[in-house]
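TICKET: design request
STATUS: open
ATTACHED STRUCTURE:
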């Protein structure tokens, strides 16, 4: 007699598969959290006593408690997590419930997010470093291949469409949020035609303390984005409903920000030359091309700059990133490039696209206002590019290589002016000073530039 239904057997097989997949992360977790999950599973997995079964009786396997399912699901990478949510009603309930639970902490390995002609204008590819496999995600309009990607934070990307307007998009859930109009940025004014329709933008070359050019530029609707935007960052997960968006924009790489619900951008003049940002203890830390670190409290009635670190470098030819190590230490990353000549068909010019040649790591001591070069990341790993810079512990992400930096192309001129040039993407071994390709042959289109994404399946909270 068949004791288990087909659905029950499928559920058990899936549970076993997912348990094996979760083992690596479970053993990388603290002993306490591992034992907690195993002890709670013990009662479910222990074989039941053998009893006689009546010929017409229908046996039902006990369902795992929802809290145990949620603990297990939190250890899964996004492809397995989605699969788990489709097994049965009970698993689907746990899958959807965990994204509204305040205590739920998902640990996802960064993936490479990209576009490609082969998957269409409205889709993106998601390359998993864990599975060495790509997945296709469908995104809301406007078509993603018509946009530029200027940032990636907390599982959301920041895009600029053909009108040079900005959106937040979660590629996993499809949620999308319109940001304040580009015409509310200090240096931008709308120009309308005789019918009142927007036709161009007026762009002023003003940094707050000087005019780079006294005459403003008149730019087409889709031209402004390439000249104006460099990078964008988030303070927190937009699905919570409370967050800041920070822009590094031209002229001369200034800062502007907006809070959730704002209808305009707030300018932070007259400071320039910013290269990377991160939020630390609720405060914005912004680093410049000279290695300076400035602090801003964006929640204050009057936002003022506090200098935490003065200039530590003279040349601005190398890119600078700021990250927080798992230990809590603040690090600066310096990325150097070598030039390789390549022809760009759009500009009809021979361009020397950048290729990462070295990556150096510096420990920042804010009390002494000094930086000190360190020759190894130890068990840590970096993710840098047009994304929120990350420093993760490889022990918690078994598929990542310790003392390596995973990088994508974020050179401003390359990604905005030479869009057909091959993108600088790979992994850099800090011990051997060598880089290698992430995957070959190349999966992605060169524009918009690929970015690192930490998948986030949480949906927005609706009022």
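STATUS: resolved
RESOLUTION: sequence designed for all positions
ATTACHED SEQUENCE:
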């Amino acid at each position: 007699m068949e004791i288990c239904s087909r659905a029950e057997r499928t559920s058990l097989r899936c549970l076993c598969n997912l348990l094996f997949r979760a083992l690596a992360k479970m053993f990388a977790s603290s002993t306490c959290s591992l034992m907690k999950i195993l002890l709670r599973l013990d009662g479910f997995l222990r074989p039941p006593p053998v009893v006689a079964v009546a010929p017409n009786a229908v046996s039902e396997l006990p369902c795992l408690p929802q809290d145990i399912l949620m603990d297990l699901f939190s250890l899964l990478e996004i492809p397995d997590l989605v699969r788990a949510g489709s097994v049965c009603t009970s698993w689907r309930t746990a899958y959807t419930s965990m994204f509204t639970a305040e205590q739920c902490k998902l640990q996802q390995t960064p993936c490479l997010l990209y576009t490609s002609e082969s998957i269409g204008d409205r889709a993106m590819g998601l390359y998993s470093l864990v599975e060495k496999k790509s997945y296709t995600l469908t995104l809301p309009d406007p078509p993603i291949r018509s946009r530029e990607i200027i940032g990636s934070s907390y599982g959301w990307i920041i895009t600029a469409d053909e009108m040079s307007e900005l959106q937040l998009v979660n590629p996993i859930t499809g949620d999308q949020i319109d940001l304040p109009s580009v015409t509310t940025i200090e240096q931008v004014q709308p120009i309308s035609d005789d019918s009142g329709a927007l036709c161009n933008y007026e762009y002023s070359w003003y940094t707050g303390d000087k005019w780079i050019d006294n005459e403003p530029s008149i730019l087409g609707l889709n031209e402004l984005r390439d000249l104006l935007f460099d990078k964008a960052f988030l303070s927190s997960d937009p699905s919570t409903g409370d967050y800041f968006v920070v822009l590094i924009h031209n002229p001369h790489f200034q800062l502007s920000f907006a809070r959730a619900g704002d209808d305009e951008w707030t300018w932070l003049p007259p400071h320039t030359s910013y290269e990377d940002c991160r939020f630390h203890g609720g405060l914005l830390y912004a680093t410049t091309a000279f290695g300076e670190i400035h602090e801003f409290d964006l929640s204050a009635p009057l936002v003022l700059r506090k200098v935490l670190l003065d200039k530590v470098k003279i040349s601005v030819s190398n890119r600078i990133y700021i990250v927080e190590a798992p230990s809590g230490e603040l690090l600066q990353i310096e990325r150097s490039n070598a030039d390789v000549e390549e022809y760009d068909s759009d500009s009809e010019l021979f361009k020397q696209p950048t290729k990462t040649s070295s990556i150096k790591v510096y420990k920042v001591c804010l009390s002494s206002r000094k930086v000190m070069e360190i020759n190894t990341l130890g068990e840590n790993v970096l993710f840098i590019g047009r994304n929120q810079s990350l420093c993760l512990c490889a022990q918690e992400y078994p598929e990542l290589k310790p003392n390596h930096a995973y990088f994508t192309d974020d050179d401003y001129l390359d990604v905005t002016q030479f869009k057909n040039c091959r993108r600088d993407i790979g992994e850099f071994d800090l011990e051997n000073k060598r880089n290698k390709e992430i995957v070959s042959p190349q999966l992605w289109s060169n524009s918009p530039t690929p970015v690192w994404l930490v998948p986030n399946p949480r949906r927005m909270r609706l009022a």
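CLOSING REMARK: The mean pLDDT is 85. The radius of gyration is 25 Å.
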